[in-house]
Amino acid sequence: MNSHPVFSAGVCRTADGALALAGHDLRAIAQIYGTPAYLVDVADARARARAYRDAFRSAFDKVGAPADVYYAGKAFLCTAMARLVHDEGLRLDVCSGGELAVARRAGIPGELIGLHGNNKSTDEINAALDYGVGRIVLDSFEEIDRVAAAAAERDVIAPVMIRVKAGVEAHTHEFIATAHEDQKFGFSLTDGQVGEAITRVLEAPNRLRLLGFHSHIGSQIFESDGFRVAAQRLIELQLQVAREHGVQLPELDLGGGFGIAYLPTDDPLAPQDMADQLARIVADACSAAGMPVPRVSVEPGRSIIGPAGMTLYTVGTVKPVRVDDDLVRTYVAVDGGMSDNPRPVLYDAQYYCELADRTSEAAPVLARVVGKHCESGDIVVRDVELPGDVHAGDLIAVGATGAYCRSLASTYNHVPRPPVLAVTKEKVTTWLRRETIDDLLALEGNEQ
Ligand SMILES: *Cc1c(COP(=O)(O)O)cnc(C)c1O
Fold it and tell me: Which residues form the Orn/DAP/Arg decarboxylase 2 N-terminal domain (predicted)?
């Protein structure tokens, strides 16, 4: 059924060779809605959300503790997406007043929302407390004071976690247990900052209620080893709080970062495997410390919406370029690029694509799919084999673009941002409409 693991479960080819999503021919979608367009396989996104919720619940149930899955809204957020994860039993992480406003519009109950950010404004903190968010993850000493002051003004007790630089940095198969401290997030374990933060939070018991510690060790992680080191460090810290302050902290958050397949060769852990491994890690560390297993939360973003999304483009130009005697690279330019997917430019991210309007028997050529922006780094898919007869007017579908594409999109070169179309068997729904040039012009002041 599924033409490729990089695409969502609802993708297959029609009898005449076009790609279809949940039974909708992508040629028809392109005709009706135009390109570029982001498409979301709603059933696939739901299935992923549910799979993470069920996997973490059942895995932690076995070690006698509850577990919560927070969807990291920064991966992709709109009202419909917030409702989708809420329907599937997930909570929601936001990291700005804007993301909180979406959660509010979606009607997500405050207690199911976590607020992140290394520089939350007073307005954002106020909005979060007014909405009754379930937790604010503290990231600086200034913020401890700001949240305490905002709680005092409202005469409430703010539930907080302390974000810790666990000293672990994980990425795909590797992790560094002594990651550099030289980054902006969290309180440092090595120079007494965390201890000072704990003391300050515990000194304001009628304003701040410390739930526990939080760490987020990286992104696109394929193995659980990095989480083991981070979990051990956080649990040691909990033990220290129990000894020094006589307080048993009830919660622990291990962050997100579970990897997905961007390329056919990527082989990420299934949700159940990741959940089982994390449950074992936490249970072992707690039993070594002689502590009960706390309520554990994780915060996947990419692994819920990433594989459920794809981007549909139209080819505008095809340009063979002789690189050297043995190599001709075919530059295939599409009608979007770094404005709708800046990840290749930002992180050298790799993607995979297929011709979406037809199949072809033509011999494959080494192609590079590029955008329409005024940067030579404007690459969509660095290296991919496409049929040698690829031509202007063909449709190209890039897989696994559901996360960190629309949410990171810009209007560079005054190229309006594409729509997000939610596709189910029954219908195609516009989650976010296409931005227009008039939208961009409307931002200009009156006196020109
Ligand atoms: C980005 C982020 C996440 C989500 O990361 P994914 O790679 O999308 O799973 C979770 N928690 C925090 C604190 C983050 O900054």
Answer: 58-305
Residue 223 placed within a domain: yes
In the structure encoding, which two tokens stand for residue 321, read together? 């370029």
Residue 4 lies in a domain: no
Instruction: Report whether 336 belongs to an annotated binding site.
Output: no
Same domain for 127 and 275? yes
Q: Give the model's pLDDT for residue 2.
A: 46
Distance 370 CA to ligand 1 centre (A): 28
Question: Closest Cα to atom 7, ligand 1: which residue?
Answer: 257
Query: What length is written for the chain?
Result: 448
* Within a domain: 100: yes
* Residue minimizing CA distance to atom 3 of ligand 1: 256
Q: Which of 305, 326, 352 is the last residue of a domain?
A: 305
Q: Is 299 in the pocket of ligand 1 (CB under 6 A)?
A: yes
Helices 225-245 & 271-289, crossing angle to 10 degrees?
30
> Distance between CA atoms of 401 and 152, rounded to whole angstroms?
43
Closest ligand 1 atom to 221 CA: 7
- Boundary residue ending a domain (305, 322, 344): 305
- Distance from C-alpha of 109 to C-alpha of 106, rounded to nearest angstrom: 9
Q: Which two tokens stand for residue 448?
A: 């020109």
Are 380 and 334 in contact by the 8 Å Cβ rule? The answer is yes
pTM over 0.85: yes
Tokens (6 digits) for 148: 């305490």
From the CA of 218, how far away is ligand 1's center (Å)? 8
According to the model, what pLDDT value does residue 322 have?
Answer: 97
Instruction: Give me Rg for the CA atoms of the chain.
Output: 23
* Domain identity same for 345 and 325: yes
Q: What is the CATH number of the domain that holds 157?
A: 3.20.20.10
- Both 124 and 236 in one domain: the answer is yes
Q: Is residue 2 part of a domain?
A: no
Q: Is residue 381 located within the same domain as residue 286? A: no
Atom of ligand 1 nearest to the CA of 70: 10
SS (H, E, C) 330-343: EEEEECCCCCCCCH
- 70 known ligand binder: no
Amino acid of residue 220: Q
Cβ 116 under 6 angstroms from ligand 1 = yes
Instruction: Give the domain range for residue 383.
Output: 11-34+308-441
What are the backbone dihedrals phi and psi of residue 108, each rounded to the nearest 5 degrees, phi first? Answer: -70, 125
Q: Is 404 annotated to bind ligand?
A: yes
Pocket test for ligand 1, best of 216, 405, 407 (most atoms within 8 A of CB): 216
Q: What total of structural domains would you count in the chain?
A: 2
Residue burial 28-53, b: 16+ Cβ < 10 Å; e: rest: ebbeebebbbbbbbbbbbbbbbbbbb
Those residues of the chain that have pLDDT short of 50 are: 1-3
Shared-domain flag, residues 79 and 156: yes
